Amino acid sequence: MSTTKGLEGVVATTSSVSSIIDDVLTYRGYNIDDLADHASFEEVIYLLWNEKLPTQEELQAFKKDLASVSKVPDAVIEQMKSYPIEKVHPMAALRTAVSNLALFDDEADSHDDEANRRKALKLQAQLPTIVAAFARIRQGKQPVAPKEELSYAANFLYMLNEKEPDETSVKAIDKALVLHADHELNASTFTSRVCVATLSDMYSGVTSAIGALKGPLHGGANERVMAMLNEIGTVDKAEDYIKDALERKVKIMGFGHRVYKNGDPRAKHLKEMSRQMTEITGETNWYEMSVKIDEIVTNEKGLLPNVDFYSASVYHSLGIDHDLFTPIFAVSRVSGWIAHILEQYSNNRLIRPRAEYVGPDKQSWIPIEKRK
Ligand code: ACO
Fold it and tell me: Strand 24-27 relative to strand 18-21: parallel, antiparallel, unpaired?
């Protein structure tokens, strides 16, 4: 038996959802650069789930369907109020609330294609409602009900702030959602596929994916990037801070990637957004500090920024609480998880690899009274 640590380079399945080939990311064959520049997030969800870009009519109908199921069952919101709010991370709250959604969906365990499509819509539409509701509950405020006439991105900001957002903020969030929507067999997507390959339900698949995304080596990195920027404080302190951290073998959050060795194609879009957004807020120090860190890490270690690095200063510029950065990732990536879950169901086989046993062998039984 041969093993590959972390399954590096192992091709575990075929997929037609997204690809990373020669450092180029595509969703259903469309280059991420084109999608980032031209597509709305709703168009991207449609593309991921239906293998084609929508026509104008299809897009309008899809947006309407999505908005019509964005309200979360009252019982789920009420239970969120009983979480130990002051110590619960929003990713933990999201994981629990999404699992809870299944209890209020009569079709939760159905494997009917139409039922799965309905669950897909509900999950996609309700994740932002949950994230925004939790953010408000912990501020002692009432959750804001979704506004069906708003776009997905605008509605999310509206539910967070109880005020309709400006166009620049909506465009920034929309683009960030497009950039995070899918990414081949990343850890959380693989988790969701392993889960549903047992023929478990879609809610279980998404709940387990949220758990995987939460970790700092995956989606949890974006929040930690902002913590690092805050800790450094000013651009002039960046060099010493990073060099010292690298010397101590501390991982710099937002850098490196298992697959990309010549750079993450999403990072340049977020870098430009960070430049623009910090100019608007007048807090260009976050962008300047990020660029400085980028230069140092690249020079010292040859590591390039990934999707999480510049997204931190973008979300900060939008006034979003730092611990909501990873939940925003989930609000986007649920579109990809669902596309992969549907693909897994359509051509399923249990995912059950092997482990090479390296533990003790041929042990003799020891009665309990003789054990030390
Ligand atoms: N900072 C400093 N050193 C790093 C970093 C980093 N961010 N990333 C990798 N390295 C170093 C490792 O210490 C290791 O060095 P060594 O060979 O001297 O021990 C070498 O580069 C290889 O690193 P691995 O951790 O083995 O690479 P792997 O492919 O397993 O990990 C990962 C990829 C998890 C993304 C890693 O680069 C990392 O931890 N980055 C920081 C966390 C992060 O930004 N995660 C988000 C990834 S993108 C996403 O999931 C959305």
Answer: antiparallel
ipTM score assigned to the predicted complex:
0.98
Is the Cβ atom of 308 under 6 angstroms away from ligand 1?
Answer: yes
Residue 258 Cα: closest atom of ligand 1: 29
> Residue 112 sits in a domain of what CATH number?
1.10.580.10
Q: What are phi and psi of 108, to 5 degrees?
A: -50, -40
- Which one-letter DSSP state was computed for residue 85? G
CATH of the domain at 257: 1.10.230.10
Distance of CA 261 to the CA centre of its chain: 21
Residues 177, 281 share a domain: no
User: Do 193 and 336 have their domain in common?
Assistant: yes
For ligand 1, atom 44: residue with the closest CA: 254
CA of 6 to the centre of ligand 1 (A): 12
Pocket test for ligand 1, best of 91, 183, 257 (most atoms within 8 A of CB): 257
Residue 78 lies in a domain: yes
- 222 touches 311 (CB < 8 A): yes
345-361: pLDDT as tens digits: 999 999 999 999 999 99
199-214 pLDDT per residue, tens: 999 999 999 999 999 9
pLDDT tens digits for 221-279?
999 999 999 999 999 999 999 999 999 999 999 999 999 989 999 999 999 999 999 99
208 and 140 co-located in one domain: yes
Is 360 contained in some domain? Answer: no
Q: What is the mean pLDDT of residues 78-82?
A: 97
Whether the full predicted model's pTM is greater than 0.95, yes or no, is yes
Residue 298 maps to a domain = yes
Is any ligand 1 atom within 6 A of the Cβ of residue 277? Answer: no
Would you say the C-alpha torsion 110, 48, 205, 180 has a positive or negative sign? negative
Ligand 1 atom with the shortest distance to the CA of 329: 51
CA 68–ligand 1 middle distance (angstroms): 41
Q: Which atom of ligand 1 is nearest to the CA of 5?
A: 30
pLDDT at 261: 87
For residue 183, the enclosing domain spans 15-215+324-346
Backbone torsion region of residue 357, taken as left when φ is above 0, otherwise alpha when ψ lies between -120 and 50, otherwise beta: beta
